[in-house]
């Protein structure tokens, strides 16, 4: 692994930049949506900012850089402040992945207007990392954003049962997804499909 990092320093630099952008946008979106819903907690903790330092988790960032899977520093929220608790909870969770998809689409624009063509350049790397983070987080597996989205879409009784199940078995399911071919079907496949569409190849 270290040999690979030293053999392609430019590739490593591009992934570092892409990871920083993806995580910063993702966590800022969570924080901003919570603030808009009436929760002052993210603002009080300095999370309603596009300053990467506020959002990067050292271990999560390193794992995302090396393996394509990782995390930022979770945004703490207090749903008691939400004006519409279930809806706002859903939207706070959804805004993270959606912001990454929008970021990927934005950085893909140069490929469609003839300003970029390379598949391995910085713009393509930013698009790919943002899509990977988005689709991974949309999986309905605790503690990913997708599990909170599903939980708030279900009727209250079903939501409670889903929450209990996902909290009990979420980490196990997450390991199954990451360590088996199931992950390729659930989020790597969709990532590659949308990546090809956005980059036009």
Explain what this protein looks like in three dimensions.
This protein is mostly helical. Helix content is 71%, strand content 0%. The chain has nine helices and no strands. Helix 2 (9-36) crosses helix 6. The longest helix is centred in the N-terminal third of the chain and has 28 residues, at 9-36. Mean pLDDT is 87; it is low at 1-6.
Features:
0% strand
Brief description of this entry?
With 201 residues, this protein is mainly α.
SSE topology sketch:
Blueprint: H1 2-7, H2 9-36, H3 41-44, H4 58-67, H5 85-112, H6 122-137, H7 145-153, H8 156-179, H9 182-199
Assess the beta-strand content as a share of residues.
under 5%
Rg to the nearest angstrom?
17 Å
| SSE series | HHHHHHHHH
Number of domains: 1
- What structural class do you assign from the helix and strand content? mainly alpha
The rounded distance between the terminal residues' Cα atoms is: 29 Å
Reported for the largest beta sheet, the result is: none
Overall average pLDDT: 87
What is the approximate shape? globular
Number of helices: 9
Helix content: over 70%
Q: Any low-confidence stretches, pLDDT <50, length ≥5?
A: 1-6
Number of strands: 0
């Amino acid at each position: 692994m270290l040999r690979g990092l030293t053999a392609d320093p430019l590739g490593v630099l591009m992934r570092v930049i892409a990871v920083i952008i993806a995580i910063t946008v993702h966590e800022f979106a969570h924080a901003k949506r919570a603030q808009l819903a009436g929760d002052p907690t993210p603002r009080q903790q300095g999370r309603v900012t596009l300053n990467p330092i506020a959002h990067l988790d050292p271990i999560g960032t390193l794992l995302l850089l090396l393996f394509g899977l990782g995390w930022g520093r979770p945004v703490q929220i207090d749903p008691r402040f939400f004006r519409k608790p279930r809806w706002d909870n859903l939207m706070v969770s959804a805004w993270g992945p959606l912001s990454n998809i929008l970021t990927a689409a934005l950085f893909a624009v140069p490929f469609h207007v003839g300003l970029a063509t390379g598949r391995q350049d910085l713009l393509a790397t930013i698009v790919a990392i943002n899509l990977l983070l988005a689709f991974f987080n949309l999986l309905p597996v605790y503690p990913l954003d997708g599990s909170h989205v599903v939980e708030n879409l279900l009727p209250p009784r079903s939501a409670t049962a889903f929450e209990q199940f996902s909290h009990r078995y979420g980490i196990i399911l997450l390991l199954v997804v990451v360590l088996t071919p199931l992950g390729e079907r659930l989020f790597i496949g969709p990532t590659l499909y949308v990546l090809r569409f956005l980059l036009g190849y």
